[in-house]
Amino acid sequence: MGxxxxxxxxxxDLAEARKAYEATGDARYIAGGQTLLPVMKQRLAQPAxxxxxxxxxxxxxxxxxxxxxxxxxxxxxxxxxASADVRRLIPALAHLAGLIGDPxxxxxxxxxxxxANNDPSADYPAAVLGLGATVLTDSRSITADDFFxxxxxxxxxxxxxxxxxxxxxxERAAYExxxxxxxxxxxxxxxxxxxxxxxxxxxxAGQAGVFRVSEMEAALAKDFSAKAIEGLSVSPDDMxxxxxxxxxYRAQLVGVLARRAVAALQ
Length: 266
Fold this sequence. Notes:
The protein has eleven helices and twelve strands. It is α+β, with helices and mostly antiparallel strands. The strands form three sheets. The protein has a five-stranded antiparallel β-sheet with strand order 4-5-8-6-7. The protein has a four-stranded antiparallel β-sheet with strand order 9-10-11-12, sandwiched between helices. Strands 1-3-2 form a three-stranded parallel β-sheet, covered by helices on one side.
């Protein structure tokens, strides 16, 4: 068993990438390859063509525009973690990026690839939803609340390409994670931010993927303190239950990590 033969295309701009995608009935984009290559090796995905986005100028890099931090879709996790701009403006995002996988994954994986895949235990969905970011594609802008659409699903249209993510700079934010000891994926991860409003987003826990914890957001909007959300919890019935942790355990962790994140900002 192994990867079946496929056509390999390396376009130099977004228009060429879309054209290559539309010319093939069964194509997949590849960014860092941290998900696509393993599933191809297992023959869980057997695209006729792989379109490498690595040759497109302008898809990587980090810049500041007004009160927003713009991260190119092909920016590696390691670069997000090390960026002086990210550390200065949204240190919680740099902290989160530094917790992803191991050094090999962080030096290959990309923010855009992670978001397009939308693994329910990935870290970046919590950052995007918890910071109220906007996903910029080759054809439109999608708010975080409209982007995620269940496990391994987003509202990206067929062939649509993420080109960057725009993060509004919050007054303060913190990310707390309980990692799986082997994979370093999040059994639960919680991002809390305070800016124009309060946002609390949890990853690794929900049966429908990343989600906002509205009851905690409302309580923190009145009193931004760990004490304000003591006793608040999410339903274990809505949590993932698997060999790693039952739903009740994950539900408890959401509350514990949310309080830790808020306490870190006091």
